[in-house]
Amino acid sequence: MSQTMDPNNMPFLSEASVSVEIETEDMTLNIGPQHPSTHGVLRLVAKVNGEKISSVEPVLGYMHRGYEKLAEVRTYPQVTTLVNRIDWVSGFANEIPFIAGAEKLMEIEVPERAQYIRLILTEMARISSHFVFNGAFPLEIGALTPIFLAMEDRERVLDLLESVTGGRFHPNFNRIGGVKPVAGAGPTTKKDIQDLPAGFYHDTKVAMEKVLKAVDTFEDLIGGNEVFQARTKKVGVLTKEVAEEYGVSGPILRASGVEFDLRKQSDYLPYDKFDFEIPIGENGDCFDRWSVRTSEMRESAKIILQAIEDMPSGPIQAKVPKVIKVPKGQTYVRAENPKGEMGYYIISEGGLGPYRLKIRTASFSNISILPIMLEGALLPDLIAIMGSLDFVLGDVDR
Amino acid sequence: MSFSSELLIKVLVVLATAPVMALGLTLLEVKGSAWMQRRPGPLHVGLRGFIFPLATAAKYFQKETIIPKDVDEPVFKWAPAWVIAAVVGLFTIIPLSPTLIVRDLELGVFFLLAISSISTIGVLTAGWSSANKFSLMGGLRAAGQLIAYELPLILSVVGVVIQAETMSTVGIVEKQIEFGFPFVIAGQGIAFIIFMIAATAEMMRTPFDMPIGESELTMGFMTEYSGIRFLIFYISEYINLFVMCAIASTLFLGGYHIPLLPTEWVNFYGPLVLIGKTFTLAFLLIAVRWSFPRFREDQLQTLAWKVLIPLSLLNIMVTAIMKVVF
Predict the structure, then answer these.
(1) Which end of chain B is more exposed for a tag (fewer CB within 10 A), N or C?
(2) What is the CATH number of the domain that holds A206?
(3) Which chain B residues touch A139 with a CB distance below 8 Å?
(4) In a domain, A382, yes or no
(5) How far apart (Å, rounded) are the C-alpha atoms in residues B107 and A253?
(6) What angle do CA A153, A154, A157 make, to 5 degrees?
(7) What's the predicted TM-score (pTM) here?
(8) Name one Pfam family in it (chain A) (predicted).
(9) Which of B168, B165, B171, B248 is nearest to B202 (CA)?
(10) In a domain, A61, yes or no
(11) What is the pLDDT of residue A19?
């Protein structure tokens, strides 16, 4: 051990280093399928080194209900009951692209009033979905109060949805060529059907004012919270390029700075008649995803307030044959759902129901970035990132 | 009175007081949170929500105790005992008045800091013996957190000890009475804030509840516990809340004394004053709990080592210099 040191060539103390890194085996941590923060039955097989995640593999399929197959043995009007249940947090919005696809194949012109009613209810579904997000995301990060406030405010919107459609989660309200005449408040004669319940205008106005107020509260209570900012800013950054490569859509894509919103780019509902903005994020981190959704609630409330002001009069149902048969052909209609882009690829052979139905759901594509975003993240960040993606397992597995 | 009969009475009084205080704080927490969250339940159900804590306790009593197959059984079973022993032991040095105290130890503050760290053993063994990966991570997080926050807790108290020139809790209160102001105004304001933050972390309450972290670790080290053992963890959390707030009010807020009240009546109003101060402080922590998300593990450690410990060292230096100068 005798080693002579050249006194003229001594190493600097700052350059000396000792490597005491002990090789340890990664622990496999099974998160889910039953875990409070996986939004249902998502299973993540994570390899963790202490708190650090080295790799994550999502395991899907625990919620698979085979809706694509089931739709093949249903008639077109029956399919809406199925698609309601795909993303149950915003059931109404799921019906729109399917019905619009069938109408496109049948070349039916939907009356303007029906289009407006659809639009209002879709935006209400968006607001209620984002309310759930505004409750669940802070809850996963550890703040327990916002969920109670969010649920209470969401109830007002759900009450409105219920007053029109009769259902809070699964409205099943769209008909091919229009919407269902309203339940309750009954028609006096068969020709004079009532479409919206009495007092809808006033109730909506009040509720939307409350929503706008609630958004302000959330921006103050959640967004202004230092701990929330520390937990979400610069966490789970998703760059523009990666987001586009993986087919991410909806608020997550917009939070990464891509200005893509089908409400502006497509014409499945008359959004071009309204004045609203598309909130865009800058950094693509968890905080931006939260703030984009929260600002979206404000824009949706604005759209609804405009729509009830200039609601056109007229029929709510186009003339359709008694037995609905869709002519042979295929089409793909996509819509901007609260969670992102939802599309239905319908192949019709001219029968009573679709020959084949392919459903493109937002959450499925959105969680495909999980392995990339979670690599090297800490375990608490995993929860924050999953929460900020705001997926619903029914929307992933169908 | 003989020593043994005196000891027996004191033990019985402490054992009766501790759960009552825990129930009181549970009620305060439930009602406070319901009020903050606009939840009607705890404000109306069951005699306006007042029997809620009792109902919760009764629920855990009648629940089955499940012991999973792979756990290290003796360690698993004894872990809650460590935790509750540590927090109940702290009652020894809480002075309700100059004479109403289990034992006015000369090294009271030292005793406090020594005993309070025993609960770390309970938490760590609970996490380790549960044979559950989430519990293990929770236990390790808890150990790291408790070690990190023990330091600012001790260092913030050192300032008080220097100023009071004694370690006895009664002595510290008497010094504040003599001084005319509680220590929180007279020089130890920063120490009080550090103490409260560190105490919150010691109690593993939000925003420092990563060891439990329901949405991450599904209750952490408590995951596998059920029935009466879970209740013991639950109750010791609230007893700990009471004890820590009581100690904070003793060390910083003048304890059992309120200025202008006649000191010869202190045995009557002392307990009420101390409990009042304690519940006020506890309400502050409850309000914090229901308005903040939780920190991340590394942010927690950064806060302890880079902010709280240097600050409390600075506080000690300033206090010592002031002591020498004046």
Answers:
(1) C
(2) 1.10.645.10
(3) 215
(4) no
(5) 61
(6) 105
(7) 0.84
(8) Complex1_49kDa
(9) B248
(10) no
(11) 60
